[in-house]
Design goal:
The chain is an alpha+beta fold. It has eleven helices and 30 strands.
Length: 685
């Protein structure tokens, strides 16, 4: 067993390390050549084969065939294989496969060569041809069948959901497939891989590869005992996260089956019948003459690709002559060998128009109108819930196809990984997502569960194929209520700086005690660019700092009171101007405030919650804010001076007050330091 000295993603020749000179292991050393290529399926890194259109998969098949022809001219074995998913060791998510061409026949290929040659020599026919016929007769392990291909679970399968893809005709290598067989192969591959993805609602990991007869100089030998086939080896066993491990007894002794081939076949063949039946009925891209769309007689093609038109009024294969409408020049005669078909190589806009086909006797066979466009692209999908019971999804094409387009919409509830009892339960779907109204780019899911997660499937379909977008959503993250309704802004009589705003719940939000809304309100005077905002406690708010005499714009938005989802859009603006009149009633002498304002607020309120800021029922002295600040500062200064004067007076009193009647008084604070009788010259009295 040798190690590679280099490996590239380009078409570079790599060699195994030179033979080891150690005589003990020289027996295991041999110089061999290897060439490696990596083929990308699609320019988008988030696309896999089941999400590609049939025409895109057909292009991959054509590249496979050309690579086998190219490398097969120099190497006896060309191995095409795809590892899908990180579980299979694939570190690059971009859809791709690898091609390894070797100068030797690998071990598994040698075993298949020996068994097929032995069976051919004993029974006179290819082993896998006979095996395919037996499976078709028994119908116990079939997964899919078509005109040219069949997919079955081989009776020797040991990996969960292992399948074998076989052509019905004797074919030795991929390049030998006819165009019709390649079209059919692309379609049955898409069906099989979509079934895999739907099995556990995940992008299904697997390893697959093609086995065909050896090539190079060996191609000239007799390889009629070989039958082309593809192996699919998926590792998943019970869920999207539980896989089979080939360890222990299976690694050291013999592989064991977790499921019988019959059980695996039954699980695969029954998946998503509704979706597949609907998709196959609409997608006609696998047909050489897609015409099940639009007005009768219209057929479709793609610019830059070969387009095949079919004469609608004759039987398949009948020779006809083709003309452009209004021209006598013959485009294609009945001896072309194409029967009732007309092939336009690399069609462009000049090929659009009307074509006429005539039978051998000159009778009109039919009229065909050619319209060119592009296959569908993955639609852009977004979902939003206006309440906690229903949600809607909208979509738009990411690329204009120019062809009539339809959309298939469905959804399913996602289950917890490993919940085997719920995996195939009909309660998880899939269910159709009804388009509301029919034909609109919007579908609605009713009766959703607030704490559950859902997978939305939007498939864009036109005459040239289909493209799918899968989106996982939860109501908690997409919840966005509609804007509040009925916003009113009214002045408060006698209060030049107040406005009263009230509103109602959106009609789409069910009023239940456990699912309430909270609100935020913005307001601004006319011609003022900045908004002020408050968060009311109910369905009304009294603005107490409005600018007197100026109209004000007010708007509100809503959100789930537990902060699920996001805020709603703002409601349409409502306008109001503060009152300029006087109070309609004076305050009574008994100190009871006006009550008519409170009664009016309660009567007009649509709900019981009270305003978060109740109005001050005493009349305000309307001053300029700077004037109010100056008054407060003056009051502070006067208060400080008063306190200082009081403290000084208290100190003087404590200093001068007498201590008692009989005790000599102490000199006062202002007494002289020397008494008068001690002064010189003072008379004695």
């Amino acid at each position: 067993m040798m190690a590679l000295s280099c490996l590239t993603t380009t078409s570079q020749l790599c060699s195994l390390m030179p033979p080891i000179q150690d005589p003990v292991i020289t027996l295991f050393s041999k110089q061999r050549l290897l060439k490696v290529k990596v083929l990308c399926f699609h320019p988008w890194s988030d696309v896999t084969l089941p999400l590609m259109s049939v025409s895109e998969i057909r292009a991959v098949i054509d590249v496979w065939a050309s690579v086998i022809e190219e490398l097969g001219a120099r190497y006896p074995w060309v191995q095409i294989f795809e590892n899908k998913g990180a579980m299979m060791g694939c570190s690059n998510p971009h859809p791709h496969c690898q091609v390894w061409a070797s100068s030797f026949l690998p071990n598994i290929a040698q075993r298949e060569e020996q068994s097929q040659r032995a069976y051919q020599s004993q029974h006179g026919e290819p082993l896998l041809m006979e095996y395919g016929r037996q499976e078709l007769l028994r119908k116990e392990r079939l997964v899919l069948t078509s005109e040219h291909w069949l997919v079955l679970v081989p009776y020797w399968a040991v990996w969960p959901f292992q399948t074998l893809l076989l052509p019905r005709r004797h074919v030795r290598r991929l390049p030998e497939l006819t165009p019709t067989e390649r079209d059919d192969l692309a379609l049955i591959m898409k069906k099989l891989l979509t079934k895999y993805d739907n099995l556990f609602e995940t992008s299904f990991p697997y390893t697959m590869g093609w086995h065909g007869a050896p090539t190079r100089s060996e191609a000239g030998a007799n390889w009629d005992h070989w039958q082309l086939h593809a192996h699919y080896y998926p590792p998943l066993l019970r869920s999207a996260t539980v896989r089979k491990f080939m360890v222990g007894y299976e690694m050291l002794a013999q592989a064991q089956r977790d499921l019988t081939p019959e059980q695996m076949s039954s699980s695969c063949s029954g998946l998503s019948r509704f979706l597949f039946a609907l998709a196959i009925a609409l997608v006609s891209a696998s047909s050489s003459c897609p015409q099940a769309w639009g007005p009768p007689g219209v057929q479709y093609g793609q610019p830059g690709r070969s387009v095949t038109l079919c004469c609608p009024g004759v039987t398949a294969g009948a020779p006809v002559s083709w003309f452009r409408d209004g021209e006598t020049r013959l485009l294609q005669g009945p001896d072309s060998g194409l029967g009732h078909e007309l092939v336009l190589a690399r069609a462009d806009n000049t090929d659009e128009g009307t074509y006429i086909c005539r039978t051998l006797d000159g009778a009109l066979g039919g009229v065909v109108n050619l319209q060119l466009g592009y296959p569908p692209s993955r639609p852009i999908v977004s979902c939003q819930a206006a309440d906690y019971e229903n949600f809607s999804c909208t979509w738009s094409p990411s690329q204009v196809s120019g062809l009539p387009t339809r959309y298939l919409t469905s959804y399913r509830k996602k289950t917890v990984p490993g919940a085997d009892d719920q995996r195939m339960s009909p309660s998880t779907g899939p269910w159709p997502c009804p388009q509301d109204p029919p034909g609109a780019a919007r579908c609605v899911v009713h009766g959703a569960e607030f704490w559950s997660q859902y997978r939305i499937n939007v498939t864009e379909v036109n005459p040239l194929g289909a493209s799918t977008r899968l989106l996982d959503v939860s109501l908690q993250s997409i919840l966005r209520p509609d804007p509040p309704q009925g916003l009113r802004v009214e002045s408060v009589p006698g209060y030049p700086r107040r406005l009263r705003a009230s509103w109602m719940y959106p009609a789409s939000w069910p009023r239940q005690p456990h699912f309430l809304l909270k609100f935020r309100l913005q307001y601004r005077p006319v011609q003022h660019p900045a908004w002020s905002m408050v968060e009311p406690a109910g369905l009304e708010e009294v603005i107490t700092d409005a600018v007197a005499g100026l109209p004000h714009a007010v708007r509100v938005s809503a959100r789930d009171f537990l902060d699920a989802g996001t805020w709603s859009a703002w409601s349409p603006e409502a306008w109001g101007t503060p009152s300029t009149g006087s109070l309609p009633k004076e305050i009574p002498a008994g100190g009871q405030p006006h009550t008519h304002l409170e009664e009016e607020l309660q009567a007009d309120s649509p709900a019981s919650p009270r305003p978060s800021l109740l109005p001050d029922l005493q009349p305000l002295v309307h001053r300029d804010p700077l004037e109010q600040v100056a008054v407060l500062a003056s009051l502070g200064i006067f208060s400080f001076l008063g306190l200082a004067a009081g403290a000084l007076a208290l100190g003087l009193w404590l200093r001068l007050r007498p201590d008692g009647k009989d005790r000599p008084q102490k000199p006062g604070f202002l007494a002289p330091m020397i008494t008068v009788d001690k002064l010189p010259g003072a008379p004695n009295l």
